[in-house]
Amino acid sequence: MDIAKIKSKPRGLVGKSILPVALVIALIMIVLYVKDSINTVELDRKDILIATVQKGELQLVIDGYGTLKSKRQQILTALTTATVQEILLKPGATVTKSSVIVILSNPELLVQADNAQQEMALARANLRQLVINQKREILDARANLAELSSRYETAKLRRIAEEKLAEKNIVSDLTLKESQLNEQQLLRRIELQEQRAEQLSLVHLEAVNIQRERIKQQQGKLDTALNRVEKLSVKANFDGVLQRLSVELGQSLTAGQQIALIGSVRELIALIQIPQSRTRDVIVGQIAVIDTRLDKIEGQVIRIDPIVDNNTVQVEISLPPRLPKSAIPEQSIDATIIIETLKNVNYIKRPANARGHTEMFLYKLNTSNSQSSRTSVLLGKESTLFIEIKKGGVEGEQFIISDLSNYKNPHIELN
Q1: Distances in whole angstroms, Cα of residue 15 to Cα of each of 23, 26, 28, 358
Q2: Confidence of residue 25 (pLDDT cuts 50, 70, 90)
Q3: Can you give the CATH number for the domain in which 100 is found?
């Protein structure tokens, strides 16, 4: 009996069928690995900065730098042309209002002061002479009045006697009328003399007032001359420190030329520079803390300069009247202006290139802290060291805050 034989397929054909599938799987794995390698960058942990999101109060501040300046300053200038004869004090010296800093020389002023004194003496002598002359005139007027009064009394007695004689026809009517007329004329002259004496007193008083006014004017000229001589000794005029001396020995000065700058020692203000970009957050009245390296002083913003210089703006801060000994004029200081205190917010140390009220990408670490993913973060208000996170990060999460703007990879692995 014939038995039918079934031919089996060669094993080599099965192997040939499996090989393409394996190759495809391997190729897919290679592509996935290469793709993952392309999207992932490895960084050394020690080369980056990592910060943790915190939650709570965030004090918004602006840091600045600057110097302490005298609140009260005065420039001393030459009143007239002069020559620097002597320099008594140098910059940095403590002065009082009576301290002489520089002595100037001007012989012409000495001559003018001497002439003014002589003219003053002459004016006073003229007043004394005027008073003497007036007294003489008054005595003459009184003598004339006394003489007229005597003659009037005589004429009156004569008239009375002639009236009695006229009744007996011993004296004629003509003689009596002459006596009566003479008496009336003398009485009239007495009245005029009295009026003249009264007017004379008024004239004398006015003449004395005029002369005294001349003396007053001359006194003003003398005071001006003496003041100019006195100003040749240049004084500080108030307690402080000599901050600048602008003259040299033997130098010729013109009127109005600067000699020195005096500044107060204990009455100080702080002039600080802050970034122009932060100026919008500063307002008058905000509290500021001044750091002298030895002490911290609380002040208040009183002025914001509208002029921008080298991308900075100057802010003036008032200081309390009682200051520590470490606060001296022209001292370099650091300053912190307190803008606002945010309550119960998420915040983080300020990442590189971060700006307030913007959205940026940061790399957030996973739970194992071995890999980070590129994450969009919405930032809020900013401070010098910290910045608010409004969206994209919660308390406890960690972010890389180093400058990774050149990386666009979705993931970064940390070694």
Answers
A1: 12, 16, 20, 61
A2: low
A3: 2.40.50.100
